[in-house]
């Protein structure tokens, strides 16, 4: 009986000494300074991290300890992973002349900004989605929205962006930015959405 | 005779269906490698491929960084994954419907460091996004975080 207890006690002690932090989870603030939330679960329980720099230290046996990190230590400790982070995906709305596949004069600076943004990204992937307002038939708006997307693709290819990195779609009048009754002209709906990642 | 013919037809049909499923799964990448420094390897179906900017990543891939390596991947739902030195990341499952934003992400970090910026799937259906380590499961509620797994653990 006694040796069994001694062995069990020794095993428990070894387990405690061995349970150095093996894993760590740190919640970070987003670009707006706010943090979302992560639930950290092991075989012994779970904790919720929902404040910027809230962290969990997990032993190899699954015991979880709530700890707190700060910006400086996180950036020092995880520098390699953070520097490797890809550029965040961005979206642009380019507005078009009513009933046409030419963008508006006011949108031209934005188109230049968009090209510059794409060119400086490694291995860019671009999704171009054309839209229209509700003037005209659904079928003609499907065709117009696709022509707008094609025009935008042509513009990007003209700037030296690989055609293979651009996919296009036309959604016609189905997804208005500003919902209207049928046959209402709405310049804000005459647009192309460009998603870049 | 008829039975044998039918059996053969059934086998052909199964092969055809299987072929379709395999090619459909093979065609749709989960994401694209955007940044690479040092040594980065992708393990895919027993093969080792060197990773470069623009290399596509598929579900079931293992991405491994060397002692000087790091890698950044953008998944199709805009999730950003980036691993530091001496890391081993498996993208166990990935599915994404760009129209509904429904999908699944199941990824595990076996060692090293991983920074995550969650994407559209976590926003649309957070319960479908899981990150695992040898001892931990993370449920994601739309956020940015870091996971570290000590490489020297037993």
Give a brief rundown of this model.
The complex is a heterodimer of chains A (197) and B (154). Chain A is α+β, with helices and mostly antiparallel strands.
Give an overview of the whole structure.
The complex is a heterodimer of chains A (197) and B (154). With 197 residues, chain A is α+β, with helices and mostly antiparallel strands. In chain A, 31% of the residues lie in helices and 26% in strands. Chain A has helices at 2-18, 71-77, 79-83, 108-119, 138-158; strands at 21-28, 38-42, 45-49, 54-59, 64-68, 90-95, 126-130, 166-170, 191-196. The mean pLDDT of chain A is 92. Chain B has one domain (30-149). Chain B has 2 helices and 12 strands. The longest helix of chain B has 26 residues, at 2-27. Classes of the chains: A alpha+beta (197), B alpha+beta (154). At the A-B interface, β1, β2, β4 and α3 of A face β1, β6, β7, β9 and β11 of B.
Low-confidence stretches of chain A: none
Largest interface: A-B, 47 and 44 residues
CATH class of the largest domain in chain A: Alpha Beta
**CA-atom Rg of chain B in angstroms:** 18 Å
Task: Give the DSSP E fraction of chain A (strand runs of 2 or more residues).
Answer: 25-35%
Please report the number of helical segments of chain B. Answer: 2
Report how far apart the termini of chain A are. 66 Å
Q: Which sequence of SSEs, written as H and E, runs from N to C of chain A?
A: HEEEEEHHEHEHEE
- Secondary-structure content class of chain A: alpha+beta
How many domains of chain A, as an integer?
2
Q: Which helices and strands, and how do they pair?
A:
The complex is a heterodimer of chains A (197) and B (154).
Chain A: H1 2-18, E1 21-28, E2 38-42, E3 45-49, E4 54-59, E5 64-68, H2 71-77, H3 79-83, E6 90-95, H4 108-119, E7 126-130, H5 138-158, E8 166-170, E9 191-196
Parallel strand pairs in A: 7-8
Antiparallel strand pairs in A: 1-4, 2-3, 4-5, 6-9, 7-9
Chain B: H1 2-27, E1 31-37, E2 40-44, E3 47-50, E4 56-57, E5 62-65, E6 70-75, E7 80-83, E8 88-96, E9 103-117, H2 120-124, E10 129-132, E11 137-140, E12 144-149
Parallel strand pairs in B: 9-10
Antiparallel strand pairs in B: 1-4, 1-6, 2-3, 2-5, 5-8, 6-7, 7-9, 8-9, 9-12, 10-11
